[in-house]
Specification:
- It is a single chain.
- The protein is built from 2 helices and 8 strands.
- With 138 residues, the protein is an alpha/beta fold.
- It folds into 2 domains: 62 residues, Roll (2,3-Dihydroxybiphenyl 1,2-Dioxygenase, domain 1); 52 residues, Signal recognition particle alu RNA binding heterodimer, srp9/1.
- Strand 3 and strand 4 form a beta hairpin.
- Helix 1 packs antiparallel against helix 2.
Length: 138
């Protein structure tokens, strides 16, 4: 069994996943827009260019997402964080800095009783991240 996080955005899925692919050194394996689906004739025009599904592969693991196609107001992502466990302090710092740019640092990257570095942030797209480095293998 594998557990794969699936994120919901309000029109920023493509921009978010372009950033995540760069920062996490992954590859976007799929990106489909609503206009490419058989049901697109039933969709309101403003939603057609939104992302129906995007899949990012990072070290054999998948992070997936889509943009909402609902006319209801988007309430944002709540109640979940993505944890990245990295193997070096330098990698933890690089990722933390990149994801926190234009975002909000909740806990600065620092040593804790369980890790040589840990920090939390919400990126510019509203996704909560926990960066954890238990020991420095560098």
């Amino acid at each position: 069994m594998k557990i794969n996080p699936y994120l919901m955005f309000d029109g920023q899925a493509e921009a978010a996943f372009q950033l995540y692919a760069k920062v996490l050194k992954g590859e976007i394996k799929a990106l489909m827009r609503y206009r490419e689906t058989p049901e697109c004739a039933e969709m309101p025009e403003p939603f057609l260019d939104r992302v129906m599904h995007v899949c990012l592969e990072v070290d054999g693991q998948l992070l997936m997402a889509s943009d909402t196609a609902s006319a209801e107001p988007f309430s944002g992502m709540k109640g979940c964080s993505i944890t990245l466990n990295v193997v070096s302090i330098s990698e933890a710092q690089r990722i933390f800095d990149a994801l926190s740019e234009q975002g909000t640092v909740e806990m600065p990257l620092a040593q804790t009783f369980w890790a040589v570095r840990f920090g939390s942030l919400v990126d510019r797209f509203g996704v909560s991240w926990l960066i954890n480095c238990e020991k420095d293998d560098a």
